[in-house]
Amino acid sequence: MRFRLDWLADHVDLSGLTPDEIGDLLTLHVAEVDDVELPGGGWPGVVAGQVLGVRPHPDADKLRMVKVNTGSGEAEVVCGAPNVAEGQMILFAPEGTTLPGGLVLKRRKIRGVESAGMVLSERELGLSDEHEGILVLGDSVAPGTPATEVLDASPVIVVDNKAITTRPDLWGHYGLARELGAVLDRELRPLDVGDVAEVAAAAGAPTLEVEISAPDLCPRYLGWRIGGIKVGPSPDWLRSRLEAVGQRPINNIVDLTNYILMECGQPLHAFDSRQIAQNKIVVRKSSPGEKVTTLDGTVRELPENCCVIADPERAVAIAGIMGLANSEVMDDTTEIILEVATFEMVRIRANAKHLGLRTESSVRFEKGLDVEGVPAAAHRFFKLLRDICPTAKPMGGVCDVRSDPLAAKPVRLAAEWVSRRLGTEIPDARSVEILRRLAFTVEAQNGELTVTPPSWRAANIKIREDVLEEIGRIHGYDKIEPVPLRGDLVPVDIEPERAARARVRELLSGAQGLTEIHTYPFTTKAECERLGIDPGDLALKNAEQPGLDLMTPSLLPALVKALSNNRKYRDDVGLYVTAPVFVRSDEQGALPSQPERLAIGLAASAGQDLLPELKGSVEALLELFRIRGVKVQQASADREAPAWLHPGRAAVLARGREVLGWFGQLHPRVMTALDIEGEAAVADLDLERLRSLPPGSEQMKPISRFPVVPYDVAVVVDRTTPADSVEGTLRKVDRELVRNVSLFDVYEGPNLPEGKRSLAYRVVFGSNERTLDTEQADALRQRTNAALEKRGWSVRSS
User: Fold this and answer.
1) Which of 386, 171, 391, 380 is nearest to 257 (CA)?
2) What is the DSSP code (8-state) at residue 120?
């Protein structure tokens, strides 16, 4: 928004303040000001001059030599303007002047004749695009008078629209002047609407009929027939003000509607009354497939339930957005129908977006305008119309149709609460004074304020914090002394469940290199049955997607589905999810239990063995929670693997007889059903039970000062032999000198008998008391081989 300073000064006294000071006040108390513009940069060096003589250019037919009295001497310049004449008062820029476009004037020769400056047009002054001739001033101007004293120009305050997007009352000069009056404690002059009673008496009864068939889209519509119109150019003052705020002058009627828009923030529209059938306006909803031609000449199909202004025969405007070409004011228009209305804000925004038409009117209507401001805008228009077109007269009274008004709701707050929340002492009388300056109605009683906002603020003053903000900004946030924060810092209680969940995520997303996914807590019967999981019967009554109505009893359906989707785009996939599942309680009437579980899934191309990696992640979790006494055991006849695991490559995580989870290779049937290529392994763990187990004791051991001796040994065993059985055998070789045992390779394939596999381990020997010599190391290797062979396993050592 652009606000012209002299326009604001029409409504509130701004004497004694510079443009920059006014800009600072607005930024501190109302809305951030982006810029304070001086027209033409203030035109430094540009002065009024009198043309003393005009003679032809000696070497150019279209150029002339103009002698100018600058008030401090005479100068002769080359000029191509056709309207320059002796005796005129013009504006002159001497050499060295910087013009608004950035051009620096220098003494130079034009077709062989030296020119010492420039006689200026409106475009060269930055006033408009007019450049067909120079700007001619009135005869009363004295030569040498600075341009700023001659031209009808005023500084412009620029406020970004986003800064006032929630303040529709600030989208016009009068609303901003109201705020300045409150900030400066200066009286706001009443809007000059003329003698309304006299006009009403002369107009008599309305001669225009207005029918609102869509009251939900149009709370108020005022229509008024006005005759005696003479369409023509607007006076200079009107053109100048509109151009300063970014509006292009068209004619006196259209310009005046735009002037009221920029002054009151209330859009107006003028129809040529000849084009309104039966002298009747109908506010209705659009018909299906209805098409119209807007003022810009574009044919547009209206969206469903779009608010339309029409007569009994056809549409004449898209309400609140743009008029139609079939009813615009023409050069020969002698009678208009003036529209001043308010429309439902949400629908205006939706329609403007659908049509790709965001106009000066629509951006105001979509903010929510003051219904009570309609009559004032109409009478302000008529008052100014009579000033610029004295023959204008009402052809009957206004026809003002409205729904029941929404009364502003009072807000109650304790007076002492204001000071406490703002952090500074504000006397009750000061709060009341500020609110009344802003036109709020205030009742103070027993230390409590009952505040009722004016109609133009009713939409955004709802709670006591809104009132507090009004007091604080007018009082001045800059007047509040900063005070160091004081208070007791109470440690936040740690939630064990949340802390454990965070540690799991840190481990799996970090060291284990997995990606966390988030899934819906719903599943389908088909997804569960593909994995052999009982879907249960906990169903939703209002499922958003047909079939997706079961509360999931397991994380695996969603995890395996995600594995399948990701495997199509990546060779290696590692995912995990932690979330509650839903299990019906055995107790009658009890709510379902929601134990938290953890599911891990790995997928890769064919031939890769994913089980060691998955087992490593499971063991890392056990180490994370310092769990002791939990063992990884291969599935057996008394502990059959779940249906979603390969029966020969499945392991159970157990503590005695208590099962804490399962992991292993995904069953080939599931792989086929979900079209997963390559290899896949999954784990389903009871995270809630794992984190609740008592942690084992930690015993610190000193780091050995003596070197260790590694020994790599490969053991050929039956495919069904658990790896932990081999590891247990290796650790028992010497409980003191075997420092560590780790599996680093699993091989199945050529060079091995059918049904066999090779497990390669690194065994680390060492002592805390001495360095093992060669004989001792050899003895340990031989004992290791002997222990393995005693179990009937073949040994391949290095």
Assistant:
1) 380
2) -
Tokens of 611: 């089980």
- Distance of alpha carbon 25 from the chain centroid: 28
Helix (H, G, I), strand (E, B) or coil at 722: coil
Q: Note the pTM of the prediction, 2 decimals.
A: 0.64
Q: Are 583 and 592 in contact (CB under 8 A)?
A: yes
C-beta separation of 90 from 120 below 8 A: yes
- Alpha-helix residue ranges (DSSP H) falling in 556-630: 556-567, 611-624
Q: Long-range contacts: 24-29, Cβ < 8 Å, 24+?
A: 25/180, 25/183, 25/184, 26/157, 26/159, 26/176, 26/179, 26/180, 26/183, 28/476, 28/477, 28/478, 29/179, 29/183, 29/473, 29/474, 29/476
Q: Do residues 239 and 351 touch, judged by C-beta distance below 8 A?
A: no
The closest of 91, 79, 81, 105 to 50, measured between CA atoms, is 91
In terms of C-beta distances under 8 Å and separation of at least 24 residues, what long-range contacts does 746-750 make, across chains too?
Answer: 746/609, 746/611, 746/612, 747/714, 748/719
What the block records as the tokens of 32 is 């951030």
Digit-coded pLDDT (tens) for 218-271: 999 999 999 999 999 999 899 989 998 999 999 999 999 999 999 999 999 999
| 349-361 confidence digits (pLDDT tens) | 999 999 999 999 9
Residue that is written with structure tokens 């990546």 in the block: 570
Which sign does the torsion angle of CA 243, 248, 252, 258 carry? negative
SS (H, E, C) 435-455: HHHCCCEEEEECCEEEEECCH
Q: How many CB atoms lie within 10 A of CB 402?
A: 17
- Any idea how long the chain is? 798
CB contact at 8 A, 136 and 89: yes
Q: Which amino acid makes up residue 96?
A: G
H or E element, residue 506:
helix 496-509
Those residues with Cβ within 8 angstroms of residue 244's Cβ, 6 or more apart along the chain or in another chain: 2, 4, 39, 153, 154, 156
Phi first, then psi: give them for residue 534, nearest 5 degrees. -65, 115
DSSP string, 46-109: -EEEEEEEEEEETTEEEEEEEEEE-SSSEEEEEE--TT--TT-EEEEEETTPBPTTSPBP--EE
Q: Which two tokens stand for residue 356?
A: 């790709």
